[in-house]
Amino acid sequence: MSPFRLNRRAVLRGAGSIAIALPWLEAMAGERRAAAQSATGMAKRFITIYQPGGTVRNKYTPTGSETDFKLSPILLPLEPVKSKLLVVDGLDMQCADQNKLMVEQHQGGITGMLTGAVQPGSGNYPKSPSIDQVLAAKLSAGKARNSIELAVRWATGKSHGLIHPINAFNFEAKSPFSPIPPRIDPQQIFTDLFGSLMPGGSTGTNDAAALTLQRKKSILDFVDRRYVALAGKLGSEDKIKLESHLEKIRVIEKSLDTLPPTMTSSCVVPTKIDTSDYNPKSGLSADNDGKVRDTETDAAIPKVGKFMMDMIVMALACDITGVATLQWSDTEAKHTFPWLNLSEHHHYYQHDGGFKPAECEKICTWYSEQHAYLLQQMQAVDMGGHTLLDESVVFVGSELQDPPGHGKSNMPFLLAGGAGMRTGRWLKYGGLPHNRLLVSLLNLFGDTRTSFGDSRFADGALPSTLSLT
Questions:
Q1: 99-135, pLDDT tens digit by residue?
Q2: 3-state class of 6 per DSSP?
Q3: Per-residue pLDDT tens for 313-368?
């Protein structure tokens, strides 16, 4: 007799729209292998993370060889996801070289990171799209959102809470390539992205009481007969896995009021948190020098940032969008870090108060912890034999490399994910323009172009000897 086999997308269905996605079982072994293999194909999702202020190079650079390297003190928090990383060194952001091109020191970097274009003078925007928006046309086709752009403690200092080349990161795909302001209010973002998945819709009022009562009746009540029938066909190990999975659902049902009556293992509304102590529009009251403080809002940055990352993960897992961006502040970064016992703003530690390498290292290490959290959350989402991270590309970067001198050679770039990349490597390129990385990223998603951004620096993808794939 042939062994019992289950499709990897199998669910337990009950009355109405109730459905419970199953965990991976040995009965799906063949399907798991095929799904894992398909996940190494063309990338499906693109996430960009902006981290302000460059890095401390001698505390950032790994040691070792391409495939056998040791993470530096700043990158050490990423050790749990090292096998999913590409540390990309030796690329220069030549489109933002202020000495040769006379672009503004910080503005040229943030506006050029995803565009590969030269900023046409201080206070102006480049006339070019950013790669995230170019990719969104394909990756988000048929989805609710073309892309989502989120930011934490954004528009500090000289921009006074408004969009400006100091903080503009994303640019529309079509002329005039206008800058896209990020969403900054976590509560509004939550409602906009997940309101329709909550009982009663975005307002939570339509028959909310009835839906709450229905939700309190265990979903298992609707599928218990099907569970018994399925369990009788499974081996002993699969029975244990299935029971453990159903028990986790019982726990979730008792603890979360925001779950809709239909749930799957990959698409779950993230837990909504209280951000009443965080003022997303604090930048509107900012001064140029960062002397105006909002310490209560600053203290909430870690929890708000985690909330933002959780929403990005679930927006991708729920197929709300295929493209997402998170900005950790802006190039001014004129907020304090009370959770790190740092009372001055980031720009002060970079150069306003003279270069403070110990403080900058502490800040950069904390950002690495946040990147690790995002990647681990993506790795935890099972998309059917592979993870959300496996079918995504995550690009992490900054507007400069050297904080005191604003230098943009040997930029601190990280890539993570799967989707055709050979990860677990440290790549060193020796001074190539970062435009070639942008071309390689586009190629990962099936875009066959050979140049992107300013034509002076856009001369093909990265060399095949050290390619991403």
A1: 776 677 899 999 999 999 999 888 899 999 999 999 9
A2: coil
A3: 999 999 999 999 999 999 999 999 999 999 999 999 999 999 999 999 999 999 99
Instruction: Say how far apart CA 469 and CA 465 lie, in whole Å.
Output: 10
Could you write out the three-class secondary structure of 233-297?
A: CCCHHHHHHHHHHHHHHHHHHHHCCCCCCCCCCCCCCCCCCCCCCCCCCHHHHCCCCCCCCCHHH
Radius of gyration of the chain from its Cα atoms, rounded to whole angstroms: 23
Q: Are 391 and 383 in contact (CB under 8 A)?
A: yes
Could you state, in order of their start, the residue ranges of all structural domains in the chain? 38-194+282-463
Residue 49 to residue 18: CA distance in whole angstroms = 36
* CA dist list (Å): 455 to 104, 366, 458: 20, 36, 5
pTM of structure: 0.80
Burial 169-180, CB ≥16 within 10 A → b, else e: bbbbbeeebebb
**What pairs with residue 328 in β-bridges?**
152
Report the chain's terminal Cα–Cα distance, integer Å: 42
Do the beta carbons of residue 312 and residue 139 sit within 8 Å? no
Q: Is 244 exposed, middle or buried (0-12, 13-18, 19+ CB in 10 A)?
A: exposed
* Amino acid in the structure at residue 337: F
Q: What is the DSSP letter of 461?
A: S
Distance CA 363, CA 301 (A): 13
Instruction: Report d(CA 95, CA 106) in Å as an integer.
Output: 12
Superfamily for the 38-194+282-463 domain: Alkaline Phosphatase, subunit A (3.40.720.10)
DSSP type of residue 335: -
Residue 115 neighbours by CB under 8 Å, 6+ apart: 95, 126, 128, 129, 130, 131, 171, 453
* Cβ neighbourhood burial of 232 (10 Å; 0-12, 13-18, 19+): exposed
Quick one: which of 400, 467, 398, 391 has its CA closest to 436? 467
Bridge partner list, 188: none
HSE at residue 358, side-chain half, CA atoms within 13 A, is 3
Q: Are 5 and 28 in contact (CB under 8 A)?
A: yes
- Give the CB-side neighbour count of residue 335, counting CA atoms within 13 A: 34
* Whole-angstrom distance, CA of residue 429 vs CA of residue 451: 18
Of 145, 177, 179, the closest CA to residue 165 belongs to 179
What residues form DSSP beta bridges with 407? Answer: 402
- Closest-CA residue to 14 (of 207, 217, 237): 217
Closest CA relative to residue 272, chosen from 248, 307, 314, 318: 307
Q: Are strands 392-397 and 413-417 parallel, antiparallel or unpaired?
A: antiparallel
